[in-house]
Please model this.
Amino acid sequence: MKKIDWNLKFIRDIFGVECLHFGYWEENQKVDIENLKIAQQRYIDILISKIPQGVKEILDVGCGTGEVAINLINKNFKVECVSPDEYQYEIFKQKSPNTKFYLTKFEDLVTDKKYDLVLMAESCQYLNLEKAFLKSKEILVKEGYLLISDYFRKYNTSYYKTTHTKEEFYFFVKKYDFEVLFEEDITANILPTLILAKKIYEKYALPIVEILSGYISEKFSLLTKIFNFLLSPVLKKCRYYIFEHTRDKLDEKKFNEFMEYKIILLRNS
Model:
């Protein structure tokens, strides 16, 4: 059975938002869904503006549902995409059926193609850095570029523990002989996205979970008791992720304290 990205499905079906990436907000911009769409487009526009002159062939790594890729294609870049997510792949192919899409992990990508630029927009955090830099060296032309837009832990803390630390990231930049051409901290501009996500979580997601759990408990009380007994550790973990972990990740003050969101342009030496 194909795995569904429920976060994406929820925000697409309920709010008509096509992607999950952060938006780039201007000062005093009202934090709501309509402005999120504007902020996300601004994020894409700013990202594209960082692409150096002369770049033609681009590989979009972790391309999601294709919003960034489509914007690149509309600006006459030649774009190919890679992602292992089958659900996002189906949505992508509906939007851009003629775009080459590798349904695989970036680290496992097999191609003879060479690219002028490899783009990682909020996908670097999911990659094995050693393998990702090796693969980038393999598929980039000489003096090709690696453009990364993502968030990093300022130091080794348990908050967002699955993301890379800045120190770890720059260790591999140096190890694989990439030159840092540009680096910009946009944390302040993306924080309103978390504020909005927290509002959606508290206003919609939590009530839906509570209503469904209450309904199931009332209609299937005996089965609920049995499941609670048999699956107690699993249910405890689920409750933790729904009621504590998610709220913690959406805390914009903690994010600002422990994380940095950066746009980084590297050149393959």
Summary: Residues 181 and 265 are 6 Å apart (CA to CA).
